[in-house]
Amino acid sequence: MSESQARKAGQVLRQRQQQFAEQIVARQYELQRERWRPMGDVGREKSVRDAGYHLSYLAEAVAARDPALFEDYIAWVQVLFDGLGFVPDVLETTLRCTADTLHEQLPPHLAALPAAYVAQALQQLGATPAATTSFLSQAKQHARTELVDLAQSYLDALLRADRRAASQLILGSVEGGLAVREVYLHAFQPVQREVGRLWQLNQISVAQEHYCTAATQMVMSQLYPHIFSARRVGRTLVATCVGRELHELGVRMVADFFEMEGWDTYYLGANVPTESILRAIADRQADVLAVSATMTYHVGHVQALIDHVRSSSIGHDVRILVGGYPFNVSASLWKTVGADGYARDAQQAIAVADGLARGGNAA
Fold first, then answer.
1. Residues 28 and 103 in one domain
2. Sequence-distant (≥ 6) Cβ neighbours of residue 260 within 8 angstroms
3. Residue 107: what pLDDT?
């Protein structure tokens, strides 16, 4: 399938997402009446919502011509469904009904790639692990023991809803000589990832996840006297999330790293109109625009924003750096969306941005 056909197929999946989701669920309920009838109307609505999520991820994978984006999502969903106690064949049946619906509803030239990606996802289901490894356990392999212990103690305080203790742990460590960069990389980053994992496994609630994020944002703000004391280097970064992206803590951490390196930063957060982003780039004479997306179904928004920047009067004056989970999953996705470079985390973003600002590239 050509690039233009793939983008068209992704666009159709987005546009007809609700219609297709309802048809998928109708097909699934027909196949498994006795299982789903007790769930009632509420259960059916949730099933339609979930099928819609599956389609939104599929649409982005198809548009990018990258099956890894959908396969990674399905692996994540299987772990989520296991944690919720769903019977093992729920996801498999949903995917089969998805393939049948798309074959039925899409013309052959648009159905081929989505169907192939669904088929690949089905093949991987048996190989998907039943659980994921703790991010704090992973940290033990490359971080000093005292940093791993700090992260664990910080997480424990957050899960107890003891924001004061969490703050004192971090501030006390920094006052004791621990660099703020170390706190960001070895406490905030792994703990936020671990909080997301615990929610995925149904071990904490959405409310707890949101509390942990809000508490970390509060603690980060208490570290600002240390962050804004660096000598300026004469470069400017504008940082933003696309669309209604709610996971903006990562790009805020990136902006703070740039401040610590002496850059002037203009952090816009999420849900900012494209015209406002363009105005900020022009007004601040930004050297680099950092764009973040955590959810794969926002990748299309990243590409749309980059297209707008490229076609604007300031398009040749600013270099564009992207990051976030979907870009970590797909090694070439940053090129697909038209960015100048990509960084896996805040520390790498500094090195890549320095190269871009000097006129280099990330290839």
1. yes
2. 180, 181, 227, 230
3. 94
Is the confidence at residue 246, as pLDDT, over 70? no
pLDDT tens profile 184-215:
999 999 999 999 999 988 899 999 999 999 99
Place of tokens 């952090």: 267
8 A C-beta contact, residue 82 and residue 59 = no
Rounded CA gap, 363 and 238, in Å?
Answer: 22
- Estimate the crossing angle of helix 40-64 against helix 89-105, to 10 degrees: 60
User: Measured on CA atoms in the order 93, 96, 100, 105, is the torsion positive or negative?
Assistant: positive
Which range marks the domain in which residue 239 is found?
Answer: 230-357
- From 17, 27, 83, 3, select the one nearest 50 (Cα to Cα): 17
Say what the pLDDT of residue 363 is.
46
Cβ neighbours, 10 Å, residue 76 = 16
Q: Are residues 235 and 293 in the same domain?
A: yes
Structural tokens at position 256: 């703070």
pTM higher than the cut 0.85: yes
What whole-number distance in Å separates Cα of residue 272 and Cα of residue 323? 17
Q: Measure the CA–CA gap between 92 and 77, rounded to whole angstroms.
A: 11
Nearest Cα neighbor of 285 from 334, 250, 332, 234 is 234
SS3 call for 32: coil
The total number of structural domains in the chain stands at: 3
Phi/psi for 19 (5° steps) reads -60, -50
Structure confidence at residue 2 (pLDDT): 83
Residue 341 per-residue DSSP state: E
295-313 average pLDDT score = 93
pLDDT tens, residue by residue, 35-55: 777 778 888 899 999 999 999
CB atoms within 10 A of CB 64: 25
Q: Helix (H, G, I), strand (E, B), or coil: what is residue 160?
A: coil
The structure tokens 């002037």 sit at 264
Per the DSSP assignment, residues forming a β-bridge with 62 are none
Q: CB of 280 within 8 A of CB of 227?
A: no
Task: Decide if 363 is inside a domain.
Answer: no
pLDDT at 3 over 90: no
Residue 362 lies in a domain: no
- Comparing CA positions, the residue from 297, 298, 288, 294 lying closest to residue 263 is 288
Mean pLDDT of 229-253: 85
